[in-house]
Amino acid sequence: MILCVLFVGIGLGDTDAEAGEREMIQVPLTLHLASHRGKPVISKRRALASVVRANEALRGYGIRLSVRGVELLPQGYTEIKGGRSRIRLAKLARHDGTVHVFFVSHVALFSPRSGDRPVSGMHWRYHGVRKRIRQREYLVIARDAPSTTLVHEVGHAFGLNHHRALDNLMCSCRRGDRPGFTRRQGLRMRGGARRFMSRAVD
Q1: Sorting pLDDT into bands at 50, 70 and 90, what band is 202?
Q2: Are 42 and 73 in contact (CB under 8 A)?
Q3: CA pair distance 170, 15, nearest whole angstrom
C-alpha cells in the first residue's frame, strides 16, 4: 500500500557557499513504514523529519536526500533481528535507483557474548550468492531512534566508520546540540554516495 509519493526534494536550503561550488549529488529515498494492525509504527511526519535532519548535516558536503515515495509495509516486518528477517527486507529493497529506508519497531544485532542487542539502526548489504537479492542493501531505523540515526546510517552506507568524538555524527554515543561530520568525512561520503547510487540500479 502506497501512502505518499509526493515528497520530493525534502531538505533545508541548497548548500553552503563551499558546497555550492561542487556538483550536488541527489540521492533519492524510498521510505518504508512497518505496520501493526494496519497502522504505521512511526508517523510519516517523524520519518520525514529525520530526512530533514539528515539534509541539515549533509548539505555542506554537496549531498541531498530526496523522498521519492513512502510505502506502508504489510504486517510482519515490525522486528528486524537475525538473518532471516534481513533477507526478507532485502527482497523488498528492489533495484529502482533509490535508497530503501525501513522504519520498524525494533532492530537488534546478534552478539555471541550478549545475544540479541537492541540498536537504533543499521546499514545492511547482502554479500551472499543468491542471485535474486545480489547487491541489495538498505537502512533500518528503530521507532525510538534519535533523529540523527538516519544520517548516521547514511554515513555508514556511504563508507564511514564509527568515530570517537562525542560531537561527531558517526559516534555511537553522539551528544551535543548539533553534532556533525568532519570535512574529511564529507569528502569520503561524496565518493560513497556515487558508488551507492551506481549499485542502486541493475
Answers
A1: low
A2: no
A3: 21
Q: Could you tell me if residue 15 is left (phi over 0), alpha (psi between -120 and 50 degrees) or otherwise beta? A: beta
Number of domains the chain is built from: 1
**What's the burial of 44, exposed, middle or buried (CB within 10 Å: 0-12/13-18/19+)?**
middle
Measuring CA to CA, which residue among 25, 2, 152 is closest to residue 72?
A: 2
Over residues 15-32, the pLDDT tens digits come to 444 544 468 999 999 999
> Is position 44 within any domain?
yes
177 assigned to some structural domain: no
pLDDT given for residue 103 in this prediction: 98
Tell me whether residue 27 is in a domain: yes
* pLDDT tens-digit readout, 99-154: 999 999 999 987 767 678 899 999 999 988 988 898 899 999 999 999 999 999 99
Contacts of 133 (CB under 8 A, 6+ apart): 87, 90, 91, 126
Domain containing 134: what range?
A: 2-147
Decide if 20 is inside a domain.
Answer: yes
Q: What kind and span of H or E run contains 202?
A: none
Note the pTM of the prediction, 2 decimals: 0.87
CATH for 13:
3.40.390
> Hey, how many other C-beta atoms are within 10 angstroms of the C-beta on 103?
27
